Structures are given as C-alpha cells and as structure tokens.
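Subject: for your reference before the review

Hello V.,

The reviewers asked for a structural picture of the protein, and I figured it would be easier to keep everything in one thread rather than splitting it across files. Below is the amino acid sequence we used in the manuscript, unchanged from the supplementary table.
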Amino acid sequence: MKSDIEIALESTLWPIKNVAEQLSLSENDWEPFGHYKAKLSTTIINDRETKSDGKVILITSINPTPAGEGKSTVTVGLGQALCQLNQKAIIALREPSLGPTMGIKGGACGGGYSQVLPMQDINLHFTGDLHAITSANNALSAFIDNHIHQGNELHIDPRRVSWKRVMDLNDRALREVVVGLGGPVKGVPRQDGFTITVASEIMAILCLADGLEDLKRRLAAIIIGYTYDKQPVTVLDLGFEGALTLLLHQAVKPNLVQTVENTPAIIHGGPFANIAHGCNSLIATKSAAKLGDYVVTEAGFGADLGAEKFLNIKTRAGNFKPAAVVIVATVRALKMHGGAAVKDLAEEDVEALKKGTDNLKKHMETIEQFNLPYVVAINHFPTDTGQEINYLKKWCSAQGAEFSLTEVFAKGGAGGLDLAKKVIECCKKDKGAMTYTYELKDSVEEKIRKIAVKIYGAARVEFTPSSRRQLKQIEEHGHNDLPVCMAKSPYSLSDDPALLGRPRGFTITVKELRVSAGAGFIVALTGDVMTMPGLPKKPAALKMNVQEDGSITGLF
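And here is what came back from the structure prediction:
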C-alpha cells in the first residue's frame, strides 16, 4: 500500500470555496486562507440559533501503545463513511503540535485513505493558531516581569509567579530556567520554566471559550501568581486582557479543511489530553453541530483521559452531550496490554489478546458510567489473524457490546460503512440524561477520588504534603466548585506507565494542584507527568526534509 504522504499528494483537493458551499456557508461565514484552507466566523453558532444541533459522536479508545490504535484515522474514516451513506457529516479534530510531530508521531492527520488535507500544512504551521497562543502566553510573561521590574505596584512575590513561558516543541532543557540575570537593567532574577504550548492555560481557554468576549473574560481571570500576602494576582489586575485578546482574535476562529474524500473537516485547538483537557475547541464542535447532521470528533488518548475530560469538562462548558461514543481498539494493542512484546505483535497470540481485553472492558465500563450508548470499532491491521479477529468479535458479543470491524485506513469511507450504520442506530438509543463522574459541589479532593476510583479503577488516592496545602489554598480562594483536569500517564489506567492491561489495587499520587481559573478547571498532576516533554533518542525530525520543488518527505 502507498504511504500516507503519497496518498495525500495524489488526492484531488477541492477549492475551499466548494467545501464551504457544501456546508451552505455564506461569504460572511468564512474567509480564505490560501486555496485549501479557510477561517470560519465565530458567529456561525448564534446566526443559526434556531437550527437544531447535529448529533455529536465522540471517538475514544483503549490506552494507547506503541502498536498504534488509529483513533484519528477511524474518526476521519467514519466521517467519510457517513457521507457515503448520504448523511451530512462533519469531522472536528484538534490541531497537531510540533512537539510530538517532530518528536515521535511524525504527523497527526489520520492515515492511509482516511486523512485530513492538506496534511503538510496542518502538521506544520497550519494557520498560525499555535504561534498566536505562544505569542500571547509569552507576552503575558513579559508583562509580568516588566511589572515587577518597574516597581511592582501589585506586590507580586517573584518566588510565587506561577505563570510559565511556552514553546510548541519538546525541549527538556527548558523545564526549569532562571530569568532576569545580568544586573539591574536585565530585570528581577527569578526561577521560571517552559511548558509546551498545547499544555498551556491559554490553549485550554481558546478551546473552551464560546466567543471573543468569553475569551477576554477567561483571559482576565488567569491567575499569574501571588502577592507577598499570598493573595492571587490575575491578568485583570495587570490590565492586559485586551492586548492578549487582540493577539488571539484571529486564532479563535475555527479552521475549515477537507479529507481525502472531500468530507468537510474543522480543525481547531490542540490541548494535550494527558496534561490539559484533550479536545478540539468548543466553538469548532458547536459550529459543526449547526452545519451538519452528524459531528464526528475525538478526544485524546484513552477513555480514562480524553473522554473523561470531554464528558466532565467540555460538555459542561458547552451544555451538550454526545449522542454516541465509539471506542477504538486494535488486536495489536490489546495483545500488548496482555503482555506481548512489540517485536512479537505480528505473531498470532490469542492468549495475550484474551488478557488484553481487560483494558478494553474497563473503558467500556467507563462509557457505561456516563449513561451513553457506544460501539466498539475494531481497527483492522494486516497482521491480524482470522482467529484473533474471531475471538475479539465473540468477546464483544459476550459482553453485549455492539462492534464493527473497520478498514478505513486501507479503504477510506468504504471501510467504515458498517461502523457508520451501527453508529447511526446507536445515536437513536437516547438513554436520557448523561451521568457525570462527580458533582461540581463536591470538594476538589472528592472529585479527584471519584475520577481515580470510578474511571481508573484505583484503590486509593494519596496527596503529597504540598498538594494538601494547595487543596486548602484552593478552598480559601473560592475555586472549589471548578471541575478537575487530571494530568496522568496515558499509557496506563494508573499513574505508572509500565502497568499495562487493567491493574488493580493501585494508588494514584497527586503531587501538585494548579488553578487554571481562566480555563475554568483545577489541574491535578500525578505520577511523573511533565508539562514540557523531551525528545526521543532519534526524533522523527531526522527523517523530515523538503525537496527543491517544495515536496515534503518524512511526516509519515
């Protein structure tokens, strides 16, 4: 089979005007960004206030492994399949970060014949949204340091500045730095550090804001640090919410592109799911719901991270619920969760597969807790044997779970027609109100315990002494009613990435709590999760190049 990049370059792209016309967009609804990309107006939702919303389909998965799950590929393939069934479907995805693109993944636009295009642009600088977020974040850092240097009218304690600089690359050397060195004219020395852009609070704010005014309100609420009296200092106190909104006023507009089969796709925002809330922007999802009958969207990593946050944080912010959920699983990944080594995944191993289904079972139980109907998508790989596939099918049937064998990587939408039909039927199974994992009135400690026990399957939660002090501070400052955004290893249900499958009896350790008042949630850092990733020994960037004619290689 041809490589992803070969398929992408051979695909016939429609002018973006044709894609916009497919969605019945007026000229006031969009503005071109080159031949094949466009920025959508943030007024689409309000302008279509009387139109009923399309059904939102959430794609999630088992815990990821190096074997690959293909969640984005299934998302794109399902959207294409729905269109082949003459349904008005739109895909809503996150924007890829340069960090993992240059580090491990090498691209994040789906794969094979289920890709979003132009993938070269999307995987690199796209429409500049992530750069705008980086600029706004670092502008705020500059404003903070200048305020302290110029007399510190707000009495900000330089030791308690919590706002960090960002960049959209993996760079472990910047996790901890010291700024302001070099004498009086260089500023006030203090400890600082860098977070990757997609884990920043401004990224989360962009993805949860419902418009420009809400964006400004959320930016104003950001807590940048504390005074000598340990009182929070906000962007509103500094007075720079207008300037930050100005830097983001174009980035808040969703981006319209298309797939290999010319299915409309809205790609906007890209928060990490193991650190931030892992969903594309609320504006993008709600705009898509006004423009189509079905919206196929995904949440990062497994159901324990992305889906949990989508359902407990994003749906609360947007006041909606998904009509159905698709849980993506592969034979290869399940065998890894059952103890098989990466080098042996091409060999038939039904016993490892049997053990690995424990991981899938937990994620199915998680979605059931939310009172949502679901379909298991078995994402087919060429190395899957007939015996392995038959076992997994029989196992799903024994659990009473609807399932579908999908081949969207090799066949595009045609390989997802069965899945699309079952998802349409699944959307008709309205089970009533969605059940949240916790109530907003619960204490932050109780919210974390409920997530750890109900979603991860943990036996207990421990808080370090510093996180205990932070719990008290959160309550004193009136932030107790915010939802919780867990920062945890994506590879395990626990906070130990080595514990695959379905571990039991484990403890989740909360090391730090951060208030993201602008985003509207509390971040709880567990295990060894870091907000600035590092590069592997041989980064994916080693294979990347551009030729004299402008053709790109190595992104896939």
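For the response letter, the relevant points are probably these. The mean pLDDT is 96. Residues 129-149 form the longest helix (21 residues).

Happy to draft the paragraph if you're swamped.

O.
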